[in-house]
Design goal:
24 strands; 2 domains; four-stranded antiparallel beta sheet; 3 helices
Length: about 350
């Protein structure tokens, strides 16, 4: 496994070098303003299930539209066969292989808004699965390849005050209503006031799309969905507690039964637990987090527990930086992670 991962990483690096060098970049000794428009990027590398192909998103600057664009590319693990999968003045990103390696789920704004799409690798035909108001995220295939889980924003339209104004005459010009803020986090730098709502977990048919099924409910935010090995449950991270908005940094791992939609917490310590990753055999869950010590900054460690939330233990600690992008080896012998 180490050999395959190392080879794939090397192939990805070679691809970066191959299309990153341009005549302008070779001649220039220093970066200048014009260099910005020549710069390209590669992101979201994904190794195919058979370990033979590396899929990634290649970004560039579209000067005619004054926008950043990206398309999907693939290369073999030897870095000798670089091919473009999608082409167009749009953003194709976050590609994810289906379990059988025959399809690719990805995000694209080719329809005007960022939506979830699926591409068949043999014909390159694409299907738009979602038609949402806001971009989905956290895309993950079910083990049988029939469903795709993702996270999506659901606006909270519950009235703040239970006060109904009397009817007004037609054509009346009334003064603007008061702006009432009932939450600590109501705005963001660069975007101003934000829409009140919560991030929920959804699933959708991977073959025909349609209306997504909302898996989670309540005034809580959820992230990082991960399927159980039998496809009957979804693991996720969130803060499903009273006054959740005041409990930043105290997330837990939860599991939801898809048949009953019952949600069960698996962790309960003081400190964040997140990014659950289920082992291929479904027996173990790797996750990251730390014990809350109220430091200015904390470093996360890797933890392990069984699928019921029992036998929790520190797996890898004392790291120089927090681990991310945790992924199980196909044989379940361990995990890969980046720092």
């Amino acid at each position: 496994m180490l050999s395959r991962a190392a080879t794939a990483s090397l192939a990805f690096a070679l691809a970066l070098v191959a299309f990153g060098a341009s005549p302008t970049a070779q001649k220039a000794k220093y970066l200048d303003k014009a260099t910005f428009y020549d710069m390209e990027s590669a992101s979201n590398p994904a190794i195919s299930p058979d370990g033979a192909t590396v899929l990634f998103s290649r970004g560039y600057v579209d000067m005619t539209r004054d926008q950043n664009q990206s398309n999907l590319w693939v290369t073999d693990v030897a870095g000798q066969r670089l091919r473009q999968l999608t082409d167009g003045a749009w953003n194709d990103s976050a590609p994810v292989w289906s379990p059988d390696g025959k399809r690719i789920a990805f995000l694209s704004n080719r329809s005007g808004t960022t939506q979830l799409h699926v591409m068949w690798t043999d014909t390159r035909e694409t299907l738009q699965l979602t038609r949402l108001e806001r971009a989905p995220g956290g895309v993950v295939w079910s083990p049988d390849g029939k469903q795709i889980a993702f996270t999506g924003f659901v606006a909270d339209e519950t009235p703040i005050l239970s006060v109904r104004l009397p009817p007004v005459p037609r054509g009346a010009q009334l003064a603007r209503g008061a702006v009432i803020v009932d939450r600590p986090s109501w705005g963001a730098d660069g975007s101003g006031p934000t829409t009140k709502g919560y991030t929920q977990v959804f699933s959708i048919d991977a073959a025909v799309g349609g209306t997504p099924r909302q898996i989670t409910t309540g005034n809580f935010n959820h992230s990082a969905p991960s399927w159980s090995a039998d496809g009957k449950s979804l693991y996720m991270s969130g803060i499903r507690k009273p006054d959740a908005e005041y409990l930043r940094g105290d997330s837990e791992i939860y599991v939801v039964n898809l048949a009953t939609e019952a949600v069960t917490p698996l962790t309960d310590r003081d400190g964040p637990d997140g990014n659950p990753e289920v082992s291929p055999d479904g027996r173990w869950i790797a996750y990251s987090g730390y014990d809350q010590k109220k430091f200015t900054s904390h470093l996360s460690s890797l933890y392990l527990m069984d699928a019921t939330g029992a036998r929790k233990r520190l797996w890898v600690g004392g790291l120089p930086s927090s681990p991310s992008n945790v992924a199980w080896a196909p044989d379940g012998s361990g995990v890969y992670y980046s720092m």
